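User: Structure please.
Assistant: Input sequence and predicted structure:
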Amino acid sequence: MNQENSRAALYGAGITVLTLFGGIAFGFVSGSLVFNVLPGHSISNPNPAHIFIAALPALGGFFAGSALWGILLGRMAHAENWKRVALAGALGFAPLTLLLAILMQALEPIAVEQLGAVFPIHRLFTFFFVPSAFLIAGVSAFAIGIGLQDKSLAWQLFWRVGIAAALAFLAVNLVMEANGWVVGAPRAAERATMLTVLFAGNFAAAIFGGAMLGVLCARQNSVIRVQTQHGMI
């Protein structure tokens, strides 16, 4: 990898981690603060209205971070319409991530009950979350390509970024498993093994998926510069 690609990879990984994880963290903190200042709030028996009110700033932070991610990637690819790439970033990442989080939470007890006797729980975790990492990264990257108004680039981003993120998640999952962080093992809940492996895997997926996305967006910028110099656009 040459120096230009290395810089693009580092930049892509950096903005992906900072904006997406930052947006989630900001949303969580702001939502928690709003919930805690609501009169009569209760953690043990929360009021649905309180949950709804607290969810608004949480979702706002989530979508804002995703939109900023789209804008910064758009700048890498020489996008002229920043509103379009902001919308692509927000709609490409946040809704699918929320949908899959809800779906996984609903499917987990069913999968354990129906398949737990055939497959160990830690393997079910791998079967479910590696494809999820691929889908979230791939679809989000595809949306950026659509935001850049380049369908060919969008499909290239979908496969390459999705595969990079999925392999990163799988590698972290297997390494942590080999070092005793086995989801579903005895006393695993005491140190929040599933959440720890999930966070580490997603963090790695963001780094490597973001790095691939950065390289491809920088290449798109280079193509546009060449076309501009030769009067092709």
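Residues 223-233 have pLDDT under 50 and may be disordered.
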